Amino acid sequence: MNPNFKPNRRNVLVASSLFAMNLVAKSAFAQRPAWPDKPIRLVIPFASGGTADLVARLLANVLSERLGQPVVVDAKAGANGIIGADAVAKAAPDGATLLLHSSAHAINASLYKKLPYDTERAFTAVAPVVAPGVFVIAVHPSLPARNLRELIDYARVHPDTVSYGSAGIGNGLHLAGEMLAQAAGIRLLHVPYKGAAPIVNDLVGGQIKMMFNSPLAVQSFVKEGKLRLIAQTGLKRSAALPDLPTVSESGLPGYEATSWYGLYAPAGTPADIVARLNAETLRAMNLPEVMDKLAVLGTGALAPTSPAQFAAFTHGEIERYARVIRAAQLSLDS
């Protein structure tokens, strides 16, 4: 201690206040049960059996082992993911209810006129769960285009005739086409379907001319010569498609359209719980056995990403899709 230090009334009051605050903080922490002290509900806002369900169950299995509590996957489908997200937004922020959502989470923020929650303020971003995966642009052989430049030139001469299908207005595959049309200054014809399966069948049959989809969905038809690949939609070439150029390197710099999955908790979830979930999620999804099962999605390993970094990523995706949606004048009611 400094021998010249002389306590005064102000110093004593400050020291007393800090001591009291420390006691209150320790008392509050001691009163909260060790987490997790009960089963965890992992909500997916889509139907069981799809990609989100696959991803959620892989994550849930590892988290159950690591956290010592059951992690139960709860599919609450409806309204493009809004119903399930709303259920989590209204849940207690105690780490017992989590949301595994897709890039639709960022899209919905601008696509719908009114949501029952604020996409950023109602949730705490926890961690990415699946790294962004690319789409491919596949065309019917009758379309006289073997690369992106030829596709753009053809569409410019034949506006509104290059039809492409997606699983509905405002989904990621639809917006990938809108982004391409806006970047290239062309007019494509969007054909919305009620599901993903009929799109591939109609493209192979020639009823539509083009589609954006996962590489897995079209690979067999490409090998048989029934479809042709034009480009992939990531900023960099996927390791699974090293010979297929990106849209960005084919004349539209900066173009990117990907799909991703992320983990969110209700706003107000304690920081120590969020940090633990972040670490365990990144560890779980980078396990070799998990990555082997996710290989069908064409994604890679997750980079170290803090909750703050994932929140910034989500914010960036919301803003990026908002620009596309405004330019296309798209709007839906929730």
TrEMBL record:
<dbReference type="Pfam" id="PF03401">
    <property type="entry name" value="TctC"/>
</dbReference>
<dbReference type="InterPro" id="IPR005064">
    <property type="entry name" value="BUG"/>
</dbReference>
<keyword id="KW-0732">Signal</keyword>
<protein>
    <submittedName>
        <fullName>Tripartite tricarboxylate transporter substrate binding protein</fullName>
    </submittedName>
</protein>
<dbReference type="InterPro" id="IPR042100">
    <property type="entry name" value="Bug_dom1"/>
</dbReference>
<feature type="signal peptide">
    <location>
        <begin position="1"/>
        <end position="30"/>
    </location>
</feature>
<comment type="similarity">
    <text>Belongs to the UPF0065 (bug) family.</text>
</comment>
